[in-house]
Write a structure and sequence with these properties.
The chain is mainly alpha-helical and 413 residues long. The protein has 10 helices and 4 strands, in the order αββββααααααααα. The chain has a two-stranded antiparallel sheet. Strands 3-4 form a two-stranded antiparallel ribbon. Strand 1 and strand 2 form a beta hairpin.
Length: 413
């Protein structure tokens, strides 16, 4: 790399690492905050989820100690409100993407331009001497052409297309978004050593930041559903019906905003069919990212400025929606599995009891335990049954004694 590129590379790595070492990470803390107030109502103390129990003497208490949870760190609520946390997180997230896009643009644009010039010269040489090429030279030309296309260089048209870069700021922002969202189409990738190493650091810190951002956006989307449910509950609707309607609203709105309308937009802009637009939207938002359909890659179409930037923003918010959708479907499947396992367990238990009772019916009476032949005690009269059993045993003993006495008297006579 040239000295300028090394400078850009180290500056970008320093920013990425410094952003996470110097940024107050507790802004990402989602823990709940508790507050305690003394009986007089004069003072209150707030604490985070990191608590230790301590007995502290407070003013206004005579010979009494108040046991309060004491925070082991500075309370987050005293530093940032909820809205300020969200605003700071969104700002940090987009600044991270913007800086990453600028670094990728600075590192990759010059190398791409040189590759385009080489591909144009190869094309010109081929056109001048294609009638005299040998088989080996033709094979080498096809190999170079395939490699250029795989690197995103399409040697079609005139020399003016050399100035059209795949690493302008809009495309670089789009690439940065696909990196931290783990989509990875593969059609646009860094080819310089500096760009590849910076991509490692950028993804290492960017992917966790993207997870935090998507979690916050998902909470905002779920909050809208909760507000809708609360509104319907105040109107007197039952909870089961509210749950069904909010789920239906979440699915319908998400499908419309993140799948149907963008697919229509892609159909107009890219020239795809509507089914291809639906296919691209789902493959992208599910982070499968085959790379067979990618926006802004057709050299014969004129795209408006920052087209791919808008697509990157759509991807970021669509990922939050589809992540909630997958989580919801996972929960439904797990609940269904639990219900099926419970039903099978009950069916097995009932069939086992029926089989045992059927076997007992087939046993001879002398093999059935005596306690099973007796009727079960009614109403829990256990003591009464025990006394009756004791009386019967006593009666049996007296009968045996009297019988033996009668036999003895007979022998005496």
């Amino acid at each position: 790399m040239q000295p300028r590129e090394w400078k850009v590379f180290f500056w970008g790595v320093w920013f990425v690492c410094g952003l996470f070492t110097n940024f107050p990470m507790n802004v990402f803390d989602n823990s709940l905050f508790l507050s305690a107030q003394d009986p007089s109502g004069n003072r209150s103390w707030e604490s985070s989820s990191c608590l230790v129990e301590a007995s502290q003497e407070r003013e206004g208490f005579t010979n009494r100690h108040l046991s309060l949870p004491v925070p082991c760190c500075v309370p987050l609520k005293a530093m940032f409100s909820g809205k300020l946390q969200t605003g700071l997180l969104v700002t940090c997230y987009f600044v991270y993407l913007l800086v990453g896009a600028a670094v990728f643009q600075a590192l990759e644009r010059t190398a791409e331009k040189q590759e385009k010039i080489a591909a144009a010269q190869m094309k010109e040489t081929f056109l001048q001497s294609f009638t005299h090429l040998t088989v080996a030279e033709m094979e080498q030309f096809m190999k170079n052409l395939t490699e250029a296309i795989q690197n995103g260089v399409y040697p079609v048209g005139n020399q003016s297309q050399i100035e059209d870069s795949n690493w302008d700021f809009s495309n670089s922002f789009f690439f940065a978004g696909t990196v931290i969202s783990t989509i990875g189409y593969g059609t646009l990738r860094p080819k310089t050593a500096g760009g590849q190493i910076f991509c490692v650091f950028f993804a290492l810190f960017g992917i966790p930041l993207n997870i935090v951002f998507l979690h916050r956006v998902g909470k905002m989307l779920s909050l809208l559903c909760k507000k809708l449910g609360k509104f319907l509950y105040e109107k007197g609707m039952r909870k089961k019906k509210i749950k069904f309607l909010t789920l239906l609203f979440f699915l319908a709105t998400g499908i419309l905003v993140f799948l149907c309308l963008p697919s229509l937009f892609f159909q107009i802009t890219e020239g795809w069919s509507y089914s291809e637009g639906i296919y691209f939207a789902f493959i992208t938002l599910s982070t499968i990212g085959f790379g067979d359909y990618v926006v802004g890659k057709k050299p014969d179409r004129n795209y408006f400025s920052y087209y791919r930037t808008l697509v990157a923003i759509w991807i970021l918010f669509g990922l939050a929606w589809i992540a909630l959708l997958f989580n919801l479907l996972t929960t439904v499947l797990e609940d269904t599995e639990k219900i099926i396992v419970k039903d099978l367990h009950q069916i097995g238990k009932v069939s086992k009891d029926n089989e045992a009772s059927q076997q007992r019916r087939c046993w001879p009476a002398q093999f059935i335990p005596e306690e099973e032949l007796l009727p079960p005690p009614a109403g829990g009269d256990t003591q009464e049954m025990e006394s009756l059993a004791a009386d019967s045993e006593h009666t049996k003993d007296e009968d045996v004694f009297s019988h033996s006495k009668t036999i003895a008297m007979t022998y005496e006579n």
